[in-house]
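By way of example, what follows is a protein record of this kind.
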Amino acid sequence: MRRLALLFAGLLVAGCTAVTTGPPARPSASLPAAAGPTSASAPSDLQAMRRAAGIADCPPSGGAPVAGGLPDVTLTCLGGGSTVRLAGLRGPMVVNLWAQWCYPCRAESAHLAAFASTSTRVKMLGVDFADPQPDRAIEFAQLTAMTYPHVTDPTGETRVGLKISGIPASFLIDAKGVIVARHVGAFGSLESVQSWVKDGLGS
């Protein structure tokens, strides 16, 4: 039994060092613990939660799909009320895939929030990925000041089009909607986000 317990503990540590692919419960000392599914909130309740959390409305996405752009997937704004066609988005914009159950996503959240609050040129969009609890996601976004717009991808349908195996993952799109840079794994600082964006946009 002792040998099995040590093996299990080692697997848990290894699974949180890079990107994550499913919702393990991993609590944080300063953030609400990620828990299993609870009773679903009504759509109107979620919209009210989003407004109360100060999370911005989702952006318009009227452009046509472009070669090398985001996958042609339409996702619902976190909390409901509108939809976003990813392929129709235009930048410069950082699109970040995250979830409240993802420990590396939690670790980078402050850096992304800081970037969103200080950048005047580059927009941010979050994609709450494979997350069964949108109410927890809204609460998490509020507590970490990730109040830029978010959409939700509850079934992980963006995984194939974006060619990812886990989250967090970030994509930088230019003014034409083309993906010009990708970053798999968590950002370690605000400066690392800024440097990645600058290099991707060539300025």
Remarks:
- The domain at 62-203 is CATH 3.40.30.10 (Glutaredoxin).
- The CA atoms of residues 100 and 137 lie 5 Å apart.
